[in-house]
Amino acid sequence: MKKFQPYPGTRDFYPNEMFLRNWFFEKQREVCRNYGYEEYSAPILEYTDLYRSKSSEEIVNEQLYTFIDRGNREVSIRPEMTPTLARMIANRDQSYVPPLRWFSIANFMRYERPGKGRLREFYQLNVDLIGSNTVYSDVEILSVAMDILKSYGANEDQFIVRFSHRALLDLWLGLTDKEKLRKIGRIIDKKEKITQEEFDKELKSICEDKEIKAIYNFFQLRLESYQDLLKDIEPKSRDQISDILNQLSQMVKYLSVNHNPKNLIFDPTIVRGFDYYTGLIFEIYDTHPENRRAIFGGGRYDNLIGQFSKESLPAIGFGMGDVTLEAFLKNHRLIPEISTKQGFYFTLFDENLYSEYLKITHLLRKNHLPVEISLSRPKKLGKEFELAEKKGYQFCLILGEDELKKQVIKVKDLTTGKETELPLEETKFIDGVYSLMQGYNKRS
Amino acid sequence: MKKFQPYPGTRDFYPNEMFLRNWFFEKQREVCRNYGYEEYSAPILEYTDLYRSKSSEEIVNEQLYTFIDRGNREVSIRPEMTPTLARMIANRDQSYVPPLRWFSIANFMRYERPGKGRLREFYQLNVDLIGSNTVYSDVEILSVAMDILKSYGANEDQFIVRFSHRALLDLWLGLTDKEKLRKIGRIIDKKEKITQEEFDKELKSICEDKEIKAIYNFFQLRLESYQDLLKDIEPKSRDQISDILNQLSQMVKYLSVNHNPKNLIFDPTIVRGFDYYTGLIFEIYDTHPENRRAIFGGGRYDNLIGQFSKESLPAIGFGMGDVTLEAFLKNHRLIPEISTKQGFYFTLFDENLYSEYLKITHLLRKNHLPVEISLSRPKKLGKEFELAEKKGYQFCLILGEDELKKQVIKVKDLTTGKETELPLEETKFIDGVYSLMQGYNKRS
User: Fold this and answer.
1) How far apart are CA A434 and CA A439, in angstroms?
2) Taking CB atoms and an 8 Å limit, are B375 and A309 in contact across chains?
């Protein structure tokens, strides 16, 4: 006998955990479909080359589950969806006409040190709008993201959206050295996690004083007041920066129609890790004092799909991971009560009547009423009722010779203890069952 | 630019394929829940040792996707669910009291030569009843299996259940050499795929003439008439065989309450590949002349869980793969029409009114009415209507300055071309929308 544990950093989903996972996913599906998004899915395994060209170096070199298959192909378990999505868009048939609104819910693996909010296998919703670079698509993607959180019962005090635009820092610093710019981006990305001294020290190691001053100026940028800050910027870049900030203001205006504008915070320190972003970037933060961290994020990536096909298509999207989402919902007590069982529990009161029981369960199921039938005769009915209640059932069905002679069935309401006799005749039985359930639903 | 293909033997699920996959899975979930089964899930990766002890040699040596992770652990992508299920049952907490009715829908990988009905990544429903070895649990598992096929619209002429019992051949031949018995089992398993001569030749290579005669006698076994055939069998085995056949007859009697007995065929040539089966084994066959093959199968495995924990638990279950299921449904024209889009298409008729459009879409979505809003102004309304119809929408919404002044919105029914004006006031608008949709649903 050997006890096996799950692989470190992965989870077994027992029925209680699976109930929650299904609840997370169903809400996501509902909101996405309400916006006209269509679900897609893809293999768990891809050629490693797909990630070599598109994913971050950190993912490819340190986190990929990569191996050689029995046919000598270099393959990897997917660490993210975007490269697969780009591949599928490039290979799609003509019936899929952009703009395409697509979403998927899938598992991913990354070799990380498992810890709070970080696992090796996680699930992620990916929502993408492909083929439009209008402000309307930016507005839509952010609306979907916020509406999903609201669909779980979150209110607008519990999260905020921080956003920026990927091109702003480039234009602001006017650097031609893209590698240096990327390094600066990485330092800014860490700003919240390190001290002021550490931050300055890291900047000084690669920047001139003039550049550091410009970076600090950059942090002062606000959508409402930026003209004064622009005076040191080259005229050409100045116009581009103004255009971007105006577009972001317009986005905020439209988002404010259905969302609280207080939740929408322009934040020039937002830098997303992936290199493929080109426009709007955003992160959604928990406002809970013990969890001031990004729940999820996304952005615009207008050049990625063009690298996979002749056709260049702008795109914007986000990924929402289940681990940080669950932490957010737990912080705000938004997790629903778990109920994995519904309907009726049928006691095996008299084994000679088993065929009758089968007929009745068939009738209930035909009417979409779940029923679990016991597999052994109960020694004591009282214990059986306790078991059924523990399993989460509301009603117990009992049929003995006496009831069969009278052509009735006994229904015991396990919450009140009340017993009702219902006629066995099909229509009357089903009507009776529905009216008992309505009474129960009203009460609970 | 490089075009990437999916890894051989795996599938991209574009929205149309995903619509079908979701349809397959939703029916399976519905039937399982109607029987009181709870959903679970598990990691895609397991320690390879888990399969070494439990899966067939063919799977472990030839089909596993196995590799060493970055932490020097030997791991595999799961090729089947049962070992994981046994592991989870052994590790479960006390709140899960047997009998347990569990199901899962998950993807698996096996390194097979991709071909008709065989892929390297496939999805499979696993349904298991753990902790009962009564005939009632055998009846229930087979009922779930048949009800799932019926839930897709299949009738009882389109499939048959062939069943047997794993212990019958052992008792019949009275062999102490388990390895020889296993070999005989494998030859019988191939019987339908090879010629009579090949079959005899393979048997002769390992069996004595007496044994071959016994095997041919064994094939004559029927539930209704077996006494004569038993005369050559040892008395002790004879009683056990009679018991088993009586139990199978009882199972057929109970199954016949809600299913056609013609569909239930005792077939002593049924041998399931996995070594862990101990009792009832069954395979469900397509009756379509061009596809006389097993769609799926399962059986009882009473000793497996005891190998993972101190506690021994009987169990029975089946796995239903999506590839063979889809072939079955296609053969019988049971695949539904694909419709990935529902609800309304909102034209961006006047960009100045975009904020109004956002208010209206919000109202619809709040009432669970899906709406997709266009991302650019249509050059010609006619083209826009064509696009919306091509996407599968039934209704188009149009709002211009004129309508806004009158506080109405235009709804165009794309199937009839009929236009209706609805008041913008919330309650009246939603009521109007519902009544338009009801009219549509009646018509279609």
Assistant:
1) 9
2) no
Nearest to B34 among A40, A140, A370 (CB): A370
Nearest chain A alpha carbon to B49: A4
Q: Of B380, B387, B395, B379, nearest to B345 (Cα)? A: B395
Q: Is B45 left (phi over 0), alpha (psi -120 to 50) or beta?
A: beta
Report the amino acid identity of residue B12: D
Cα distances (Å, whole numbers) of residue B438 to A378, B434, B441: 49, 6, 5
Indicate if B63 and B119 belong to the same structural domain.
yes
Quick check: B167 and B148 in contact, CB under 8 A? no
In a domain, B337, yes or no: no
Examine the domain organization and report whether B183 and B116 are in the same domain. Answer: yes
Q: Which two tokens stand for residue B371?
A: 């709406």
| pLDDT over threshold 60, residue A442 | no
CA–CA gap between residue A423 and residue A436 (Å, rounded)? 13
Burial class (CB in 10 A: 0-12, 13-18, 19+), A85: buried
Q: How buried is B146 (Cβ within 10 angstroms: 0-12 exposed, 13-18 middle, 19+ buried)?
A: buried
Residues A58-76: tens digit of each pLDDT: 888 899 999 999 999 999 9
Q: Chain B: residue nearest A151 by CA?
A: B366
Per the structure, the count of domains in chain B is 2
Q: Are residues B381 and B233 both part of a single domain?
A: no
**Closest chain A CA to residue B134:** A375
Residues whose CB falls within 8 Å of the CB of residue A406, separated by 6 or more in sequence, listed in order: A421
CA diameter of chain A:
96
HSE-CB at A14 with a 13 A cutoff on CA atoms is 17
Domain boundary among A225, A254, A271: A271
- Reported as half-sphere exposure (CB side, CA atoms, 13 A), residue B208 has a value of 4
> Which residues on neighbouring strands pair with residue B126, listed in sequence order?
B104, B319
Q: Tell me what pLDDT residue B444 has.
A: 45
Regarding whether A438 and A348 lie in a shared domain, the answer is yes
Q: A219 is in which domain, residue-wise?
A: 167-271
Residue A254 lies in a domain: yes
Same domain, residue pair B77 and B178: yes
CATH code of residue A425: 3.40.50.800
Residue B374, both tokens: 């266009």
CATH number of the domain residue B250 falls in:
3.30.930.10
Collapsing DSSP states into helix, strand and coil, what is residue A124?
Answer: strand
Residue B123 lies in a domain: yes
Read off the pTM: 0.94
The fraction of chain B above a pLDDT of 70, given in percent, is 98
**Range B186-206 average pLDDT:** 90
Q: Is residue B382 part of a domain?
A: yes
Mean pLDDT of the region A6-33: 97
A265 shares its domain with A348: no
Which residue has 């778990």 as its token pair? A338
Nearest to A371 among B2, B36, B132 (CB): B36
Judge whether B76 and B45 are in contact, CB under 8 Å.
yes
How open is the CA angle A192-A197-A199, to the nearest 5 degrees? 45
Angle B249-B254-B258 (CA atoms, 0-180°, nearest 5)? 135
* β-pair partners for A421: A410
| pLDDT of the residue at A274 | 63
Same domain as B151, residue B62: yes
Q: How many CB atoms lie within 10 A of CB A70?
A: 11
Interchain pair B50, A4: CB under 8 A: yes
Q: Which residues of A touch B87 (CB under 8 A)?
A: 3-4, 6
Residue that finishes a domain, picked among A254, A271, A288:
A271
Q: Is the peptide bond preceding residue A99 cis, with omega within 30 degrees of 0?
A: yes
pLDDT of A444: 45
pLDDT of residue A273: 66
Name chain B contacts of A375, Cβ cutoff 8 Å. Answer: 99, 129, 132, 134, 136-137, 140
Let me know whether B321 and B389 are in one domain.
no
User: pLDDT confidence of B61, banded at 50, 70, 90?
Assistant: confident
